[in-house]
Amino acid sequence: MSGTLLEVRDLTVRYGAARGALPAVDRVSFDLAEGETLGLVGESGCGKSTLARALVGLAPIAAGTIRFAGIDVRSARGESLRTLRRSIQLVFQDPYGSLDPRQRVGAIVAEGIEIHRLARAEAVRERVARQLVRVGLSPDCADRWPHELSGGQRQRVGIARALAVEPRLLLCDEAVAALDVSIRGGILDLLLDLRERDGLAYLFISHDLAEVAAMSRRIAVMQLGELVEIGPARELLAAPRHPLTRAMLASAAVARGEAPAAPPLTGEPPSPSAPPSGCRFHPRCPLARPDCSRDAPPERATADGWRWRCVE
Ligand SMILES: Nc1ncnc2c1ncn2[C@@H]1O[C@H](COP(=O)(O)OP(=O)(O)O)[C@@H](O)[C@H]1O
Ligand code: SF4
Ligand SMILES: [Mg+2]
Fold first, then answer.
1. Given 1.10.10.10, 3.30.300.20, 3.40.50.300, 3.10.620.30, which CATH number is that of 4-97+167-309?
2. Ligand 1 site, CB within 6 A
3. Distance (Å) from CA 311 to ligand 2 centroid
4. Whole-model pTM above 0.85?
5. Backbone phi and psi for residue 203, each to the nearest 5 degrees, phi listed first
6. Which of the chain's termini has less CB crowding within 10 Å, N or C?
7. The pLDDT of residue 18 is above 70
């Protein structure tokens, strides 16, 4: 395996200071290797977007460390900060809201190239055209307005904009969730192609475990700000260790019309402003023991780095 690209340790993000409320991201630790895809999955509100935003300096980090290619993200300034800003790019969920409607596609894709001075003025257009082709669009798209494009085309523009600055890590936050089911596959294939061709690393975020499964070499599962399980994708999907992961897999099986191997997930996630005591999953856990409502479970791990938080 190639070297570690991203190292996150005990990352904690807090919005405001509501007493008793949980941090939106709570002591999360993981590594990501060069060229690797880590899938991040969890119910709505569990902190996935906040985690991604913290990695690019868009969420208030309260504690922990983030190192990217040896640079300490929280203290980076000057040249290292510029390198970081280029190297980690976010692809947003909403291809409608994330493109400025007053700019033509060419200007949208050129912006990063110009900010980071990656091409001389006369070469920018040519570089933009290359990015458009790279994501399966025609170079003529540069002269069009976002509203003239389909949802899938707009998301390709969003990806071209991210790629234009030659990042090493793409954070794809529900990158296909807002798209028609019929065009999701094409965008996911594009992301897979880019990984093969360019060795990009991905943090691939989705609330949909099946989607994450298809994309990822490792999978991380979040609940109420915490990472409750992280492990190798194939093994984790075959035999998840955390009851939440088992319940999510069971729900995915039910959605496909198959018989689930465990009870599916029921009920809503608890509110972060009134979190359950002990294990945060205990009110919904089919395997909960009496102690689970009192004690936070320890984190357990195998020698090869599969980790989960449960007494089971
Ligand atoms: N800008 C914000 N200000 C205050 N709270 C926020 C903000 N963004 C997200 N949150 C809260 O942080 C928690 C995690 O949200 P988010 O990261 O968006 O979850 P996910 O992406 O998994 O759905 C939620 O409780 C959400 O309400
Ligand atoms: S610690 Fe207890 S409540 Fe929490 S997931 Fe494990 S068995 Fe369920
Ligand atoms: Mg989100």
1. 3.40.50.300
2. 15, 24, 42, 44-50, 272
3. 6
4. yes
5. -105, 110
6. N
7. no
